[in-house]
Amino acid sequence: MIKCVQKYEKKIKLRARKQLIIVNLHIKGEKTLNLTSMSNAYFRFKQFCIRHERCAMKVGTDGVLLGAWGCVDGRRILDIGIGTGLIALMAAQRNLEAQVLGIDIDEEAVMQAKENIAESPFANRVTCELQDVLDFQPEAPFDAILCNPPFFTEDTLPDDASRALARNNRSLPFLELIRKVTSLLSDTGRFSLIIPSSHMQELISLSLVEGLHLNRRCIVRTKANKPPRRVMLTFSANASPTTEEQDLCLMAEDGSRSEAYEALTKDFYL
Question: How far is it, in rounded angstroms, from Cα 164 to Cα 242?
């Protein structure tokens, strides 16, 4: 028994020395793509670094996808649920003319996001506030809104309270989110988000009732032979004659990033 414990402790120490973190995206028990960083405390991108040791939700595939794909046109951008600040900073990098505001109800996340923003090249254009979006009353509407919303709907939630809050859509139901977004968007503004594909039709239907029309859709699957697990959607108050459709496969047959995923994230991943 003592030998088993010693062996286990040795294994843990070796892992710690390597200082390697693998952030796995799990969807209903299925492991998808891995993100690797130089330390368990941060993830380095080409133009900025994200520390996430104090945030409930770490840097993950969902945030990177939305940050690279979501609509960021216009001068005023809002990131609902800023978390580490990843999506807000990606938006600022993509749109050099925009002012980006991130809001979150998690005080620890807001503090860490502010630190990440302050250390980035975009500190003069990105701000962060401790704010519940449902109570948010900005001075002016936004040209683009991004959101990686909570989406756990199961009765069994993660043990960690912060992670549960960040990933349970009972803290921000889709209908309340959509209604608030419609009041925050400018007349030509666009709302982009990433959700589990199982909720796609529900969200599209709710959005249409509230006056938001689907303009873009990107189906995300880990491998070509796997069913989609995520979908990215862009809505606006203006209906388009056609919806821009994409199908994004994240992994090549050998397990590396696919060409399409590389092309989408080339300005961010090292």
Answer: 37
Cβ(188)–Cβ(212) below 8 Å:
no
Go through the domains of the chain in sequence order and give each one's CATH number. 2-265 (3.40.50.150)
3-state secondary structure of 11: helix
**Distance in angstroms (rounded) separating the CA atoms of residues 193 and 11:** 39
CA distance 169 to 66: 18
Cα gap 10→1, rounded to integer Å: 14
What is the secondary structure of 158-201 as a DSSP string? -SSHHHHHHHBTTSS-HHHHHHHHHHHEEEEEEEEEEEEGGGHH
Enumerate the β-bridge partners of residue 80. Answer: 103, 147
Q: How far is CA 177 from CA 134, 191, 215, 227, 243, in A?
A: 8, 11, 18, 27, 22
Question: Chain-wide mean pLDDT for the chain?
Answer: 83
Whole-structure pTM over 0.85, yes or no? no
Give yes or no for a contact between 220 and 231, defined as CB atoms under 8 angstroms apart: yes
Report pLDDT digits (tens) over 139-171: 999 999 999 987 543 433 445 555 544 444 444
Does the structure show a pLDDT above 80 at 30? no
Helix 86-94 vs helix 61-69: angle between axes, to the nearest 10 degrees? 20
Whether the CB-CB separation of 22 and 34 falls below 8 Å is answered with yes
